[in-house]
Design goal:
This protein has helices at residues 7-22, 54-66, 88-112, 130-147, 151-163, 176-183; strands at residues 24-28, 34-36, 45-49. It is mostly helical. The chain has two domains: 7-78, no CATH class; 88-183. The chain has a three-stranded mixed β-sheet. Helix 3 packs across helix 4 (130-147). The radius of gyration is 16 Å and the shape is globular. The model has no long low-confidence stretch (mean pLDDT 87).
């Protein structure tokens, strides 16, 4: 990677974009990411990403951008999560619900100039066809670019493009082969 990506910058851009309007902050966490809504001890919603990894921050933000208003009032948006070690059917179900968040994560990565890789997140379980999964994520990303992102996503994409001095998103900016190469190589997310 040619450029250093500081998770503090990502947290600041997110905070500047959404704290006042949505009382939500991006927070560096430990080993496991989680979304925690406002509670009796904390007066803002928290998107907690893993260990300060920039890509983890982008991924967790993408889940927040997909979640509707009611879901954002529930811990981890009220969704199920089955940890690493999933069998074939569970992995296929997992990938089906991950297509849209990972497409948005790819868009966020482009807005930052940060490399993107799809993640099947199942190192010790059944291994799917990563290329087929990436095809599905790519198709979803192209559809979102063509039809438009929701308002929160567009607002953050604009803020990130401005901060990282990146041009607006277009289908031509998607480097499919690089993402496929990155997806086949392990690195910390």
């Amino acid at each position: 990677m040619n450029k250093e990506f500081d998770y503090n910058d990502l947290m600041q851009v997110f905070d500047d974009t959404f704290y006042a309007s949505h009382q939500t902050r991006l927070v560096k966490g430990g080993d496991e990411p989680i979304y925690l809504p406002i509670d009796d001890t904390v007066s803002y919603h928290r998107i907690i990403f893993a260990r300060g990894y920039f890509a983890s921050g982008l991924h967790e933000i993408a889940h927040w951008l997909v979640a509707g208003e009611a879901r954002r009032l529930l811990e981890d948006y009220g969704y199920w999560y089955c940890p690493d070690g999933r069998d074939e059917q569970t992995q296929k179900n997992f990938e089906k619900v991950e297509v849209k968040p990972q497409a948005i994560e790819w868009a966020l990565s482009l807005a930052c100039g940060h490399p993107f890789r799809v993640s099947t997140d199942n190192l010790s379980g059944w291994q799917s066809d990563r290329g087929a999964f990436q095809d599905n994520v790519y198709t979803q990303l192209c559809e979102l670019i063509n039809t438009g992102f929701n308002g929160r996503t567009q607002k953050l994409l604009s803020a990130l493009c401005a901060f990282y001095q990146q041009p607006p998103l277009t289908i031509e900016r998607i480097d499919y082969q690089r993402a496929l190469h990155e997806s086949n190589n392990e690195y910390e997310v």
